[in-house]
Amino acid sequence: MNSIPKPAPGSETSGREDFAVGDKDAVVIVDHGSRRQESNLLLNDFVEMFRAKTSYRIVEPAHMELAEPTIKDAFGKCVQQGASRVIVSPYFLSPGRHWKQDIPALAAEASKEHSNIPYIVTAPLGLHELMVDIMNDRIKYCLRHVAGDVDECTICAGTGKCRLYS
Predict the structure, then answer these.
(1) In this model, does residue 46 exceed pLDDT 90?
(2) Which are the contacts of 123, defined by CB distance < 8 A and separation ≥ 6?
(3) What CATH number did the domain enclosing 26 receive?
(4) What number of other Cβ atoms are within 10 A of residue 146's Cβ?
(5) Residues 110 and 32 placed together within one structural domain of the fold
(6) Which residues constitute the domain of residue 49?
(7) Which residues fall within 8 angstroms of residue 106, CB to CB, at 6 or more apart?
(8) What whole-number distance in Å separates Cα of residue 66 and Cα of residue 35?
(9) Does the record carry Endoplasmic reticulum as a key word (predicted)?
(10) What is the pLDDT of residues 138-165, one digit of tens each?
(11) pTM
(12) What span, in angstroms and rounded, lies between the C-alpha atoms of 132 and 127?
């Protein structure tokens, strides 16, 4: 059995001030983007939750493709709000081609108009023990729904997808 990766030494608190979260740090949370508007709107809801639960003041959504705002749009909006550093964080589970190539290329292109603003593209969500809790919570809720104990969640509402198939 593979072990869950541990954070890199010093990744939680490096002791260096330039790695601490600052008032002028901005986060661009990037998903793939979808032709389905309901899916794109979920990113906005996540961005609001992220902003409310973290110390980041500037947080913007972006879609890698198929929808707006783009990474370039979000990067610019962060700078307009006074960002002195932009953290591009992929809302992806795995480190595939989009994380390795596409998002870094789009972030680099976006930064060209703001050459004095440093940026980083973080790792995707990947393996994290809290993901187990999230999946388990989702499973339990869906099972409670098919048992008739709770309403459909906002993800499944009106789709008819959350049901027991036989």
Answers:
(1) yes
(2) 90, 95, 99
(3) 3.40.50.1400
(4) 13
(5) yes
(6) 22-121
(7) 64, 70, 71, 72
(8) 6
(9) no
(10) 999 999 999 999 999 888 888 888 888 9
(11) 0.83
(12) 9
- Domain co-membership, 32 together with 97: yes
Q: Return the pLDDT at 1.
A: 43
Question: How many domains are contained in the chain?
Answer: 2
* Residue 62 CB contacts under 8 Å (≥ 6 apart), including other chains: 28, 29, 30, 31, 69, 70, 71, 73, 74, 75, 88
Residues 147 and 85 in one domain: no
158 and 140 inside one domain: yes
The reply to whether 151 and 117 lie within a common domain is: no
The Cα 2–Cα 86 span in angstroms is 33
Distance of CA 57 to the CA centre of its chain: 16
Supply the mean pLDDT for the chain: 89
- 95 and 27 assigned to the same domain: yes
Per residue in 49-84, pLDDT tens? 999 999 999 999 999 999 999 999 999 999 999 999
